Amino acid sequence: MNPVIALRSSSLATLRSGCCSLFSLLLFIFCGPFPLFAQDTSLVPRDTLATKSYSNNPWRPVLTPEQKKQRSWLVAGANVVGYSTAMIGLYNAWYKNYPQSRFHTFNDWSEWKQVDKVGHFYSAYIESRGSMELWRWTGMDRKKRIWIGGMSGAFYQTVIEVLDGFSAEWGWSWADFTANMLGSGTLVAQELAWDEQRIQFKFSFHRKTYNDPGLNHRSDVLFGNTMAERLLKDYNGQTYWASVNLKPFFPGSKLPGWLSLSVGYGAEGLFGGTQNLAKDDNGNIIFNRPDIKRYRQWFLSPDIDLTKIKTNRKGLRFLFTVLSAFKFPAPSLEFSQGRLKVHALHF
Which end of the chain, N or C, is less surrounded by CB atoms within 10 Å? Predict the structure, then answer.
């Protein structure tokens, strides 16, 4: 691939990835907590229910066959209409104005220290989680709900990969596809094994500013200059977390049910896909900073599983469920470049 096109494609990839992440969060925010607001008149305590699928909530609706059918059609229609609308918008915004080609692959594994691949994992996981909760609301059988809802994220993301495959600027990425499958598969595996998400995957962000005006300008060009754009596109400010709820793994302990321990991943010094170099359409170098080291970051931090906080208020449960997609700000221990660093508060 022409180096100018490759560099431009790397920049565009941050936009596309950011859009996918935004879609994932919106789907989870609007769909994930939806069952909390179900208006049902027939509720029974957990003790009287024989199915394991009700184990995470002491009050679950007992639906009639007609209610199940109506809800299933509603959820299926919402999925089709909502996702089709999103894909048409994505196609018109990102793909339509760029040259098309025959289906082809593109190896982007080496870009962005794989932070974008972790983002694909997270996006598929969050989409699957939101979709699965919608199907739970319909009263669908446990295993059907897990498989149909749980693999939705992988399906949604795979459609985007197909669009990439027909775009001359990008291509089908086996690395992206694998990350998507792992994200959805991780949710499915936990539901089948534990009927809950003992390990939740979360996201946090802090806006990066630099003492060097040149780096601030490069960030504005590559990632945008608004907070919303930076949150979606700036891999230097993103951290992805695996948050492990401790109590289920130590059931006999006196640990609080909401206490979690999180392992985070991020990167620093990324001002291009594979190197800190940029050229204009004529091949002239417009940014070249080989002196800036590109490196990975690993974090360890306490966390709160907000879904384990008991409350009878639907509004609070809605808020806690939405916020569970994000890492709670807390102190962290960073390991990078062979040394440890302590952060008083990590976003």
Answer: N
pLDDT reported for residue 7: 43
Task: Give me the amino acid identity at 294.
Answer: R
Residues 86 and 156: their CA atoms lie apart, in Å, by: 10
Q: Is 12 exposed, middle or buried (0-12, 13-18, 19+ CB in 10 A)?
A: middle
298 in Cβ contact with 336 (< 8 Å): yes
Q: Is the pLDDT reported for residue 23 higher than 60?
A: no
**pLDDT at 343 (0 to 100):** 96
Q: pLDDT of 111-138, one tens digit each?
A: 999 999 999 999 999 999 989 988 998 9
pLDDT at 183: 97
Predicted confidence at residue 232, as pLDDT, reads 85
Q: How many CB atoms lie within 10 A of CB 9?
A: 22
- For residue 89 the two structure tokens come to 């918008």
| Residues paired with 60 in a beta bridge | 44
The reported pLDDT for the residue numbered 92 is 79
d(CA 66, CA 264): 45
Residues in Cβ contact with 271 at an 8 Å cutoff, skipping those fewer than 6 apart: 215, 218, 219, 222, 278, 287, 289, 292
What does residue 330 show for φ and ψ, rounded to 5 degrees? -160, 165
The two structure tokens encoding residue 44: 């029974």
Q: What share of the chain is helix, strand, coil (3-state, %, to 5)?
A: 50, 20, 30
SS3 assignment, position 245? strand
CB-based contacts of 182, cutoff 8 Å, min separation 6: 121, 124
122, 23 contact by CB (below 8 A): no
CA–CA dist 227, 233 (Å, integer) = 10
> Residue 322's pLDDT is what?
87
What is the token pair recorded at 229?
């754009």
User: Lowest mean pLDDT: which of 94-98, 226-230, 295-299, 312-316?
Assistant: 94-98
Where b means 16+ CB within 10 Å and e means fewer, 232-267 reads bbbbbbbbbbbbbbbbeeeeeeeeeebbbebebbbb
